[in-house]
Amino acid sequence: MNGASELPAERSSTGVTTRPIAVVTGGSEGIGLAIAHLLAERGNDLLLVARRADALEQAAAAIRSENSVEVMALALDLTRSDSLELLDAELARLGRHPHILVNNAAIGHSGHFSEANPAQLDRLVALNVMAPGRLMRHVLPGMRARRGGGIINIASLGGYVPGPYQAAYYASKAYLISLSEALAAEVKADGVRVTVVAPGSVETRFHAKMAAERAFYRILLPTSSAASIARWAVRGFELGLRTVVPGFFNLVCAVALRLSPHVVLVPIMAWLLNPRRPADRGAEHHARDASAGDVDRVDR
Q1: What H or E segment, with its residue span, contains residue 258?
Q2: What sign does the CA torsion over 76, 70, 38, 239 have?
Q3: Cα angle at 101 between 64 and 163, to 5 degrees?
Q4: Alpha-carbon gap, residue 21 to 45, rounded angstroms
């Protein structure tokens, strides 16, 4: 897809001329930052969105140093009820409209669902489910009217199967996969692309933040780098693919997860995902689960 610098400016119904930009949520680190680098290499100006202003500015500076594009940063909590208004205000200030949206911000939870902090579960649903849905509903009318642009949603291979001990996170990614595939079909005729990416385990801080490093999936299953997942994501988006499962091993797993009965799969997933925390440290680790909400997306 053409970089933003190669696309024409657009005059809105109010007579204001705006230029295209790629908006990347969770863009301060991990997969989001890696995707931002690739979009910048392709000539797209960027607006990085995450909660921590210091990390955002560092990420933006790193991208600027390597590319001749404009990179802006917006410190914003996407779970706020007025997040869309604040995003619009920033875009208006910059004289921009979203040509590409990357929904990457998310958090996880590891442990017994019944022992989870209710506030943490609320935040997980707000960030993993409500925020990408609201953002897509917000930007798609403009993209359809312009007959161009698109969305990259970062889901997880876990979205294809129930995940005991990461139940809420896996369920949130199932929602994102289903919604993305449906919307891709709805907007295809309008020249808009929607690509959902379902990586397996990725070598980032996400798992440690959930205190899940002792789980067998971290030991037995292969991991990918954030840069590798970003390459798959951007290339799949450019090719117009609706679903991208990075890597041959993960692709085989995705097929198996879709075809195998849950009565067989779910016990296996429980064995793989059990965080296996020492009993005397359970309270400490459940507290760390809640702190994962302070991370703008460093995973999968």
Answers
A1: helix 248-259
A2: positive
A3: 110
A4: 5
Q: Which residue has the tokens 């019944």?
A: 114
Instruction: Report which residue type is found at 134.
Output: R
- pLDDT tens-digit map of 10-27: 655 556 789 999 999 999
Q: Which amino acid is at 79?
A: T
User: Given 160, 169, 170, 217, which residue is catalytic?
Assistant: 169
pTM of the model: 0.87
**Domain at 4-294: CATH code:** 3.40.50.720
Amino acid letter, 17: T
Tell me the residue type at 64.
R
Cβ neighbours of residue 49 closer than 8 Å, sequence gap 6 or more: 23, 24, 25, 26, 27, 56, 73, 74, 76, 78, 87, 105
pLDDT in tens, 235-275: 999 999 999 999 999 999 999 999 999 999 999 989 989 89
Decide if 188 contacts 195 (C-beta within 8 A): no
Tokens of 142: 């403009």
Query: What is the DSSP secondary-structure string of 73-110?
Result: EEE--TTSTTHHHHHHHHHHHHTEEEEEEEE-------
Q: What is the DSSP string of 216-247?
A: HHHHHS--B-HHHHHHHHHHHHHTT-SEE--S
**Whether the predicted pLDDT of 280 surpasses 60:** no
Structure tokens at 236: 């799949």
The yes-or-no answer on residue 165 being catalytic is: no
